[in-house]
Amino acid sequence: MSYREKLAWLMLGAMLVSFTTYFAVAYSGSIEGLPNLRLLAVYAGAMMLQLLILGVGRLFIGMTSGKESRARPDERDRAIAHRAGHRAYYVMMAGLVFTGIYLPFTEVGWHIVHAALLTYVISELVRYWVVLSAYRKGWHG
Amino acid sequence: MADGPIENQVRTLRFLNGEMTQADLGDRIGVTRQTIAAIEAGKYSPSLEAAFRIARVFGKPLEEVFQWKD
């Protein structure tokens, strides 16, 4: 498995763990009211958790990958990253249109914030999934 | 994803050239060992530039290294 594939697994895992934790804790209590300091604290905690996972994970992958971790992305890495970003962009746009145009008529406050956050999370998950799929199954431009 | 429409003789040519490793070939054309492995396995179609660089390493014309599958 290549260094960049390992990184994609790490980022996918870190996103899943941190945002699953955030949404689980956020919806275990009240999410009414703006500003909601409890939710902001939960979000800060989730981000710290994500940074911790990424920091430890990158250190471990860097140590076990040798000189490969210092190599710049080659043409295949760049092509895969470009394709993944392209796919994730459509997910992000669809989510933002839904959040910005439809939800203001039906929801208020944190529900809209969470919909936007969820849009970001889903688009990132799609991006990493496309990256991993391209490394695993192949990529023919 | 299905294999691409291009097949190649990179693995054979590596062995015919002093059992050159994937890492050696990758270093010479500026890609990673994993990319060479993906090319050999038919999981990645290289850019035209990379294809010419590979052919030049082996001293072969491009069509002896890469072939279009009909």
Structure description:
The complex is a heterodimer of chains A (141) and B (70). Chain A has 141 residues and is an all-alpha fold. Chain A has one domain (3-137). Chain A is built from four helices and no strands. In chain A, α1 packs antiparallel against α2 (37-65), α1 packs antiparallel against α4 (110-137) and α3 runs antiparallel to α4. Chain A is flat and about 50 Å long. Chain B is mainly alpha-helical. Chain B has one domain: lambda repressor-like DNA-binding domains (434 Repressor (Amino-terminal Domain)), CATH 1.10.260. Chain B has a two-stranded antiparallel ribbon with strand order 1-2. The longest helix of chain B has 11 residues, at 48-58. Chain B starts with 5 loop residues before the first strand and ends with a strand. The A-B interface holds A 2, 5, 68, 71, 74-77, 133-134, 137-141 and B 1, 3-6, 26, 30-35, 38, 41-47, 50.
Name the descriptors.
heterodimer; A: 141 residues; mainly alpha; 4 helices; B: 70 residues; 434 Repressor (Amino-terminal Domain); 54% helix
The residue-averaged pLDDT of chain B reads 90
Helix and strand run of chain B: EHHHHHE
Q: What's the number of extended β-strand segments of chain A?
A: 0
**Largest sheet geometry of chain A:** none
C-alpha geometry of chain B: globular
The CATH class designation of chain B is Mainly Alpha
- Which residues of chain B form runs of ≥5 with pLDDT under 50? none
Q: In order across it, which strands form the biggest sheet of chain B?
A: 1-2
Number of strands of chain B: 2
Question: What is the CATH architecture assignment of chain B?
Answer: Orthogonal Bundle
Distance between the termini of chain A: 20 Å
Number of helices of chain B: 5
Radius of gyration of chain B: 11 Å
Domains of chain B, number: 1
Oligomerization category of the chains in this entry: heterodimer
Summarize the structure.
Chain A contains four helices and no strands. Chain A is mostly helical and 141 residues long. Chain B is globular and about 30 Å long.
